[in-house]
Amino acid sequence: MYGELEMDQLSQFESRLPLEPVLQAEVEELRKLALFSRRNIPPEPEDQEWQRLGKDPLHRKGLRLGLWLCILAVAGFATTLSVTVLGSEEHWTVQLFLLSGAAGVSLIALLTLRERLAVLPHDPYRKVHR
After folding, report:
1. 77 and 26 in one domain?
2. Which helix (H) or strand (E) covers residue 49, if one does?
3. What is the pLDDT of residue 130?
4. Rounded Cα distance, 26 and 38, in Å
5. d(CA 33, CA 39)
6. 18: CB partners within 8 A, 6+ apart
7. Is residue 75 located within the same domain as residue 35?
8. Do 25 and 70 belong together in one domain?
9. What is the model's pTM?
10. For a surface tag, which of 24, 30, 38, 74 has the fewest beta carbons within 10 Å of its beta carbon?
């Protein structure tokens, strides 16, 4: 039941189970007890704190504000970069490569963020507890 037996010992044990109803009942009782104890284990203090923070409106609004400030900063850096590059005296191909690189990185970041936010409600691991 706990994976402590070697393969040959496990096969011997499993062959005994159908022949010994008392042993079979004991194993079944231990499996039920293990399942019961896993279901009723108290949550870890760290998990309780994460749950409390997740319900705290100040924490949630702070995370949203932080996200919007990061988006604003990226937009500001992109704008500053484009103005600086376009106003410089570099050859037009250098300007084009710098702007296309910045646009590509920004596009990848925004699409990654969009994808993560779209699949977040369907993430099967969001409700997994230790």
Report:
1. no
2. helix 45-55
3. 60
4. 18
5. 10
6. 24
7. no
8. no
9. 0.39
10. 38
* Paired tokens of 22: 């008392």
Question: How do residues 23-45 score in pLDDT, each as one tens digit?
Answer: 889 988 988 888 888 788 777 77
Q: How far is CA 72 from CA 33, 82, 99, 102, in A?
A: 54, 15, 18, 15
Is the domain of 62 the same as that of 11? no
Rg (CA), the chain: 29
- Single-letter amino acid code for the residue at 49: E
Q: Which residue has the tokens 């990848």?
A: 108
Assigned domain for 51 exists: no
The pLDDT of residue 6: 87
The reported pLDDT for the residue numbered 9 is 87
Residues 65 and 95 both lie in one domain: yes
CA dist., res. 51 & res. 44, Å (int): 11
Find the domain containing 84 and state its range.
57-122
> Is the same domain home to 33 and 68?
no
